[in-house]
Design brief:
This protein is of the alpha/beta class and 293 residues long. It is 43% helix and 26% strand. The chain is built from ten helices and ten strands. The strands form three sheets. The protein has a six-stranded mixed beta sheet, with helices on both faces. The chain starts with 5 loop residues before the first helix and ends with a helix.
């Protein structure tokens, strides 16, 4: 019986994980023809094809998906063997990288990742940024889970899980000078908004337009924590999700001016369709929903 060449199998695994031969070649530091040739030889040796090839893309077929699942287990086991031989035999922590859009509250990010911080086998990295940049990092494999308020539209490259929604509140410093009832009390008042054109700011702008509210825009910020701190420290108002304002409302550092009707900040977890860390990622999302019950 002919043995399968593990190098060729690994090249297949990296191509399937990255989603393209070009990205795999960059990761493996090999030329695209070299990788293509190795995969073709692997298919010939096994007597099956593993990819559906077209002019622009490469996708796993049924046999390819079956092989990929077995490769996940094989290379995970290989990592465990290597880790067990290092140091005092303590396995190296698996890295889980989470990216979150800047409009997402720190409390939600921590709540989502809570169980990971308790896992002695996991090393966590959390970064926030613009959604377009985070999706690039997701495609490059630099982050494993993207937390966002605006999922990709109709892409087959990702798995998207709806994590829930959060109501939007207009909040301000307790000494905010308002006149009239909400939302008219926001008219001509100093306001801090988000500098990106994300879904959250679009919801806010739609509310202002529909209610004919014209606040005085005094500044724009990307980071939701900074926006909250500005509202706590100056006599202006802002509109942020409840979870971002919850602790400041409890402490009295912020007051609620009103709730934005028919507006919700929806939250999603976006992960690659194929990931060598799929088992851990599924467990993270499952634990989050268990805590929500």
């Amino acid at each position: 019986m002919q043995r399968i060449n593990l190098n060729k199998l690994y090249y297949f695994f990296v191509v399937a994980t990255e989603g393209s031969i070009k990205k795999a070649s960059e990761k493996l530091h090999l030329t695209q023809p070299t990788i293509s040739g190795q995969i073709k030889q692997l298919e010939e040796e096994m007597g099956v094809t593993v990819f559906k090839r077209s002019h622009r893309k490469i996708e796993l077929n049924v046999k390819g998906r079956q092989l990929f699942k077995r490769c996940e287990k094989l290379f995970a086991m290989a990592d465990e063997i290597q880790n067990s031989l290092q140091g005092l035999g303590r396995p190296e922590r698996m890295s889980i990288n989470i990216g979150a859009v800047q409009s997402m509250s720190n409390s939600f990010i921590f709540n989502f990742s809570m169980n990971l911080w308790k896992n002695e086998m996991i090393k966590i990295s959390i970064s926030q940024g613009r959604q377009d940049e985070l999706f690039k990092q997701l495609d490059l494999g630099k982050i494993d889970i993207l937390l966002t308020d605006a999922p990709p539209a109709g892409s087959k490259r990702y798995k998207v899980t709806t994590l829930g929604g959060d109501k939007l509140l207009a909040v301000s410093h307790p000494k905010f000078e308002k006149s009239g009832r909400f939302p008219d009390c926001l008219n001509d008042q100093p306001y801090v908004g988000f500098s990106n054109a994300g879904r959250l700011q679009q919801e806010i702008n739609f509310f202002f337009d529909s209610e004919n509210i014209h606040p005085e825009l005094i500044g724009e910020v990307d980071d939701i924590t900074l926006i909250r701190v500005i509202a706590q420290s100056t006599k202006c108002f802002t509109v942020i999700p409840y979870n971002a304002a919850k602790e400041a409302l409890k402490s009295g550092e912020l007051i609620k001016l009103g709730e934005i009707p028919d507006a919700t900040s929806m939250l999603y977890a976006v992960v690659p369709k194929y990931s060598p860390k799929e088992k851990v990622i599924r467990q993270v999302i499952k634990d989050f929903f268990i805590r929500k019950r």
